[in-house]
Amino acid sequence: MVFIFLFRPEYFIDDIELIIKNKLSNSIDGELNIGSMNGNFVTGFKVNEVDYSKDSTIIFSAKEIYIDPDLSRIAFGVIAFSEVIVTSMYFNFQSSQLDGIQYSEKSTISFFNTEIASLIIDDGLFVIMDQLYKLNGELVLNYSNVVELDINSLNIHSPAFQDVLVFQSGNLIYNNEEIELSNIIINSHWVTGKADIIVNIEDFQKSSASIQIDKLFLELMNGSPINIHKLNVEIDSNNRILNGILKCDADFQNRKYTDIFISGIINKNLIEFDKASLIVDGQHISSTGLINILEKSWEVKANIDEFELTKNTLISGEVNLNSDFNLDHFNGNLLLINSLIDSVEISSISGEFGYNNGILSSDNISVKSAGQISNFHIYSFSDMDNFNIYGSIELRDFSDKSFISKYALDSLNGDLKIAWMKNFDVNTIDLDINLGNALLYQNKFNSFNGNISGEIVNDDFRGSSSGKLIGWDYYAYNWDTINY
């Protein structure tokens, strides 16, 4: 009888299959189908074409499941397997599947007490919250009142990741109340680190986490790389309030961001950081902000004090940014006060703008200082060598020692319209001018109405001018060179 059971189990397989189906059907809500089952207790069993569906949606399927029973453990009443190989596995999990689930204090997630010494996932495809994850790995499973998984090796491919995510080791324990991830070691070429996380299923506000990432490399949609170093995240629960602290350094777009510090509160789908600061190229910036996880959006309010953008350019004030989960595309508005732009003192700069793939644009940026009001339309601005802008400037007794004093003028009055485009190939400028009491060839005039247009090459202007010049008191002067 024992020989028949071990080597010729086909006489019992129909009963075994029926028992499994009945046991599972009583434990789950849905429809389970098993194509065929063959093998024996010595060489193992193969279960072909398994699928489980609910509400006409396939939740789980596998082309083949190989099962190698551990007879030494089974003899003592423990359902144990030396090896289980799941081939071409598919698992679909969406948040809607949790709707309507009621947890009982005495509930159990187990219908069997099961041990699997080696659970191999060969070509597994997981769909979780509409994200695709392809898994290959080897796990150790203990399944009783809790589910415990030990990771021997696990590789995950996903469009959500920069590249393959490699887990060297780790432990997962799941019960009806929480999921505990401990000693999770990640060693991929784009991210390395360690994590310990507890997620409370019944009350997320009781969760906690400790994450240390040595390096993290990300690439934005426009190809811009971000390198993050020494990332530390600590999340603790205090009276059902999740408090979090993040620290790290980063390199982004040829700038170094150091001593990044963020502290805040995690409340359901919102992450509100009440204190954030960083040092950019040795300069300090502080901010506050909000992240909405469900809406996949974020907003930041940054305070800046004499931040040096370029030589002779210092800005102070407030900048507000907001976007979806995308660092290379966002919108914002700014109000800068008492700043210095190219050595010119500016009272205020204000307006709304957009940033997309390294290019800044704006329908209107207003610039005000003593004696002048300017409004600019920025078609594109990448840096000081790549931009395309159009604007108007009103001069009312404008006086600036760094510019007009060397021409023996007290002030400037008039209106200008400017179109300026500069890139690696061209540097063209077009000016419509209505100017009074200025200089031409170091001689004063009463007014000039006209146009100046041309190209700037090696800091020299080459172009043409046309218009009406009134009241020009000119005297003899010497030409250095005449080109004709």
Can you put this structure into words, describing what you see?
- The structure is a single chain.
- Helix content is 6%, strand content 68%.
- It has three helices and 27 strands.
- It has a 27-stranded mixed beta sheet.
- It is elongated.
- It starts with a helix and ends in a 14-residue tail after the last strand.
- The model is unreliable at 1-13 and 95-111 (pLDDT under 50).
- This is AsmA-like C-terminal domain-containing protein.
Please summarize what this structure is.
With 484 residues, this protein is mainly β. It has three helices and 27 strands. Among the domains are: 1-100 and 108-160, no CATH class; 161-295, no CATH class.
